[in-house]
Specification:
It is a single chain. This protein is an all-alpha fold. The protein has one domain (2-122). Helices cover 86% and strands 0% of the residues. Helix 1 runs antiparallel to helix 3 (42-61) and helix 4 (65-90) packs antiparallel against helix 5 (95-127). The protein is elongated, with a radius of gyration of 16 Å.
Amino acid sequence: MKQMTTIGRILFAIPFAVFGINHFIMLDYYTGMLTSFIPLGAYTIILTGIMLIVASISIISKKFVRISTLLLAALLLLFILTIHIPHLLHGTDGPATIIALLKDISLMGGSLMIAGIYSDEEKTSAKK
């Protein structure tokens, strides 16, 4: 069972590293997705890419997993509130907007589950 959770944790983290790298490679694409009230333009995209890569490394290396997954869930919530919902309300990108929204909701749920698992593990190790 422990092998399955290890594989699941790693498989969960890998796409975030890819997403983070994409923030550098496809900077113009992501800049075009920004809504008008998001500050700093390209710098926000670069910072977001860094945060995604750091979260992925943290989850894979099992260092600071609880805090990194909680921060990742908060970042995904920000994506939902500042990118997906405004795009949905303005009718841009059609079905792709709904798919991206549901993807980030699902990833946020997975991130919270991993945070919960590592919270329980921290409590168990503290009792020993």
